[in-house]
Amino acid sequence: MNVPTMADMMAQGKQPEVLFWVGAAGSYDDRAKKITRAFVKILQQANVDFAVLGTEESSTGDAAKRAGNEFLFQMQAMTNIEILNAYEVKTIVTCDPHSFNTLKNEYPGLGGKYKVYHHTQYISKLIKDGRLNIEGENLKGKRLTYHDPCYLGRANNVYETPRDLINQLGVKSTEMKRSRSTALCCGAGGAQMFKEPERGDMDINILRTKDALETNPQIIATGCPYCNTMMTDGVKFHLKEDQIVVKDIAELIAEANSL
Amino acid sequence: MEKFLPNILFAVILIAGGGYFAMNVRKLIRNIKLGKDVDRSDRKNERWKNMAKIALGQYKMVRRPLSGILHIVVYVGFLLINIEMLEIVIDGLFGTHRVFQPLIGNGLYGFLIGSFEVMALLVLVAVIIFWLRRNIEKVKRFWNKEMQGWPKNDGNIILYFEMVLMSLFLIMNATDVPFQEAGAGNVISQFIAPWFSGFSAEELHVIEKGAWWLHIVGILIFLNYLYYSKHLHILLAFPNTFYANLKPKGQFTNVEAVTKEVQMMMDPNADPYAMPEEGEDEGEPEKFGASDVTDLNWVQLMNAYTCTECGRCTSSCPANLTGKELSPRAIMMKTRDRVEEVGKNIDANGGEFKPDGKQLLDDYITREELWACTSCNACVQECPIGIDPLSIIMEMRRYLVMEESSAPQELNMMMTNIENNGAPWQYSQMDRLNWKDE
């Protein structure tokens, strides 16, 4: 894929219209990398002039902050802000609601002020601006349920934008009993992704996947690489991996557009 | 003199009841102020609006329609019937009887008392349903671990208080012969009056006076019960919604003391061996995070006193729903218990806290609870009066990590990875862009 970096751009004296913040999961996790690639295809289809930081990108510090390590968070934040400001970045888009939340809400107080979009918001904007269409009928009639990522939904009140996109896919979408502001967490937030759960009688992702299974879906859609991992594991636990796929909205749009 | 005995007695009871309550309110404010300062003086308009909408308007209560609507009935009834308190106090002090009746005329008076009677009946019904939900239907959130013993009794005692007070109000009206004869406003009590038809006029007068006295004394006892119960929310819901966090729920505070240190570390011109300048007072090095209630801010402590233990938070907490130890309600209850303990310690030691070898962490809130949180904000979202248990959990995690370095091992590995290679996993930063060619 042709993915320019900010350093490339700068060398050519150019400033992209948006920086794509890939995030750690999107860069290294095999499943999340597919989301990253799907989103890049969408950006390319819409002729968006974008760039990534590449090897200059580093953890936003979200997981460290939620684990209680404010030092590490602020070290990461200030290092990232220095780089972002050096490149005079104004607009950022990311597929990770955790990076989205941290960049949007927690960086400004440390000197990093940017217009930050979650990728569903950015795609929605591209459609509104007439730069992108959701075309194909590849997903028409498929049964789908959408899982709200906590850091997109409750944390930032973004509930409708992902749903608007889903509605344009021609799928048959059913809400889970707990959705929007009452959505149940997938179990990954607050640095839980990186540790074993405390003792209890069930893992959270198993419970959340049960919510999804009650809608009898073929697709569980979400907008977060960590939710994706958790729900995928949940589907496997319930032995449904033959019937149900867990997909990011970016992947669904790429599929609809046969990208 | 004897003639004025009831008036004097009434005044004494009123002053004693009011005075004792005022003393406890002072204590309450003192205890809340044990918390650190936090500035919530911004965006005043939004704050007033929130208070009007969430506390006065009960806007978040109806997220759960049944309990929400019943609660609104009790709340409106409580507000309206308290208007009647004004008359009761005047009657008590001056020995009058239904002083407003001639003043505002039978029509208006009848309308007012009539609506109070209807509300009293509705409140009685709602409170009985509440009792049934707690004790017979056994709604799960009233039976969690932290709801055993006193919290369970506390919930029921409040319901009994309300049942008795409403009944007394109706009985008082039903046995008031002139009031029944006037026939204005006795919309409910006229159906109760026949139950007392066997009594003589004098006996009825005694019953009416008895109900009147029990009603007012009951209200004063209830008022003073508040401080010792979860029921303080009827007052604190207002400041609590006013001072609640207005920022996006996902935005956690950036610790300022850390910012200063990190800036120093990153400043290439900073002299790491610099001595403090002459006359510059370095003060105590700041403690990071919270291990006790005095490390929390006053809004968090007010949150703890405001919590009425309804358990909507806990019943939506993913950790609690999957059998983990964590319950956001218990976080609030334990915080309050510890503030109370610190307050009592201060009272017992002449205004100064004497170290008691205890703290909020470990003695009240366990590490297991703190590490089970996914920071999903469901508890914050669900609280009908703006309590934020998550902020307390985060402050305590900060203490565990920054003061004690005692995060779970896997989290330490995750943090080491972020430090070394800028990702929570052990991948080389040089491989960050590999995805584009795969």
UniProtKB/TrEMBL annotation, chain A:
InterPro entries, alphabetized: Cys_rich_dom (IPR004017), HdrC_iron-sulfur_subunit (IPR051460)
Keyword set includes Oxidoreductase: yes
Ranges of residues in domain Cysteine-rich: 28-103, 145-231
GO MF annotation list: 4 iron, 4 sulfur cluster binding; metal ion binding; oxidoreductase activity
Any one Gene Ontology cellular component term annotated for this protein: plasma membrane
Keywords annotated in UniProt: 4Fe-4S, Iron, Iron-sulfur, Metal-binding, Oxidoreductase
Pfam families recorded: CCG (PF02754)
Protein name, UniProt field: CoB--CoM heterodisulfide reductase
Naturally occurring in which organism (per UniProt): Tenacibaculum holothuriorum
TrEMBL record, chain B:
Coiled-coil region(s): none
Segments traversing the membrane: 6-23, 69-90, 110-132, 153-172, 210-228
Domain of life: Bacteria
InterPro entries cross-referenced by the UniProt entry: 4Fe4S_Fe-S-bd, 4Fe4S_Fe_S_CS, HdrC_iron-sulfur_subunit, Helical_ferredxn, NarG-like_sf
A GO cellular component annotation in the UniProt record: plasma membrane
Pfam (any one): Fer4_9
Single GO molecular function: metal ion binding
Domain 4Fe-4S ferredoxin-type: 298-329
Key words, A-Z: 4Fe-4S, Iron, Iron-sulfur, Membrane, Metal-binding, Oxidoreductase, Transmembrane, Transmembrane helix
Gene3D superfamilies, per database record: Alpha-helical ferredoxin (1.10.1060.10), Transmembrane di-heme cytochromes, Chain C (1.20.950.20)
Protein known as: Fe-S oxidoreductase
UniProt source species: Tenacibaculum holothuriorum
